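User: Can you recover a sequence for this backbone? Please restate the input before giving your answer.

Assistant: Of course. Working from this structure:
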C-alpha cells in the first residue's frame, strides 16, 4: 500500500491509462460516424455448393475524397507518435528504481559504456532529454536530490535477506513517498513531446487539404488544440543538453 493509500499496482494501472496506450484512431472515429446497416439487404442461406471455389466478387472502387485522405494521414501520424512516445515501462517499483539509478549515473557522467536505454523507440538523445527534463521538474517541485533518494532505496533493497518475503510493504511505502510525484511528471513530459511531434507533422497536412476539405481541417484543428493533443502553454521544446549534463540543476544558496 502506498503512502497515500493507493496500492503500487493501482498507481501503475493509472500510469498506463495516462500514457494513452489505447490511443483513439481518428480514422476509426471518422469511419464510425454515420455508419449504418442497410435494412434492405436480405439474409440468405448459402447454397449447398457454397464450399466450392468461386471467383471473387469484383471490387467496387469508390474514389477517395479529400476528407478520407486527410483523416487517414492524420490518423497515421497520431498513432505512430502515440506508439513511440510512451512513458517509462516497468513492472514493479524496483524496476523504476533500477531505470532511474542507471539513467542518473549516465546523465551525471559516472557510468561507463553505452548509454542504458529504457525507451528504445526514441532516439538516445531524445530519451535522455526527456529524462533530464523530468528529473529537473521533479527536483524543482519536491526539493529532493535524485541520487540521494535512489541510494537510500537501493540500500533498502540490498538489506533484504535471501529467502525472505516476496512483498515488502515498507519499501513500497517509502518509494511512494519519494516517487509518487515523479510518475505524473514523467507522463506529462512525454505527452508534451508527443504532441509537439504531432503538431509539427500535422501542420503541412492540414494546409494541403485546407481548400479541398475546409470543414474537416477546422474540425481536426479543434481536436488537436484540445486535450489530450493540446500543446503546453510554452510550445517550445526544452533546450537540449550534452549527454553527460548533470541530472538536476544545482540549488541556489
Amino acid at each position: 500500500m502506498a503512502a497515500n493509500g493507493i496500492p503500487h499496482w493501482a498507481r501503475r494501472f493509472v500510469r498506463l491509462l495516462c500514457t494513452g496506450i489505447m490511443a483513439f484512431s481518428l480514422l476509426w472515429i471518422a469511419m464510425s460516424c454515420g455508419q449504418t446497416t442497410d435494412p434492405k439487404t436480405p439474409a440468405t442461406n448459402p447454397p449447398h455448393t457454397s464450399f466450392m471455389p468461386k471467383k471473387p466478387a469484383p471490387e467496387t472502387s469508390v474514389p477517395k475524397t479529400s476528407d478520407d485522405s486527410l483523416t487517414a494521414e492524420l490518423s497515421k501520424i497520431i498513432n505512430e507518435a502515440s506508439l513511440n512516445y510512451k512513458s517509462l515501462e516497468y513492472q514493479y517499483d524496483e524496476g523504476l528504481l533500477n531505470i532511474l539509478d542507471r539513467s542518473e549515473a549516465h546523465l551525471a557522467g559516472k557510468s561507463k559504456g553505452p548509454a542504458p536505454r529504457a525507451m528504445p523507440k526514441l532516439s538516445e538523445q531524445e530519451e535522455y532529454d526527456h529524462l533530464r527534463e523530468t528529473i529537473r521538474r521533479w527536483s524543482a517541485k519536491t526539493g529532493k536530490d535524485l541520487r540521494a533518494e535512489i541510494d537510500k532505496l537501493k540500500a533498502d533493497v540490498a538489506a533484504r535477506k535471501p529467502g525472505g518475503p516476496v512483498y515488502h510493504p515498507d519499501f513500497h511505502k517509502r518509494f511512494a513517498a519519494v516517487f509518487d510525484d515523479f510518475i505524473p511528471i514523467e507522463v506529462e513530459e512525454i505527452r508534451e513531446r508527443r504532441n509537439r511531434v504531432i503538431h509539427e507533422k500535422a501542420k503541412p497536412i492540414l494546409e494541403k487539404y485546407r481548400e479541398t476539405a475546409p470543414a474537416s481541417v477546422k474540425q481536426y484543428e479543434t481536436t488537436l488544440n484540445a486535450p489530450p493533443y493540446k500543446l503546453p502553454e510554452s510550445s517550445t521544446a526544452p533546450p537540449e543538453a550534452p549527454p553527460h549534463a548533470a541530472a538536476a540543476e544545482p540549488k541556489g544558496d
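That completes the design. Residues 1-6, 24-53, 242-253 have pLDDT under 50 and may be disordered.
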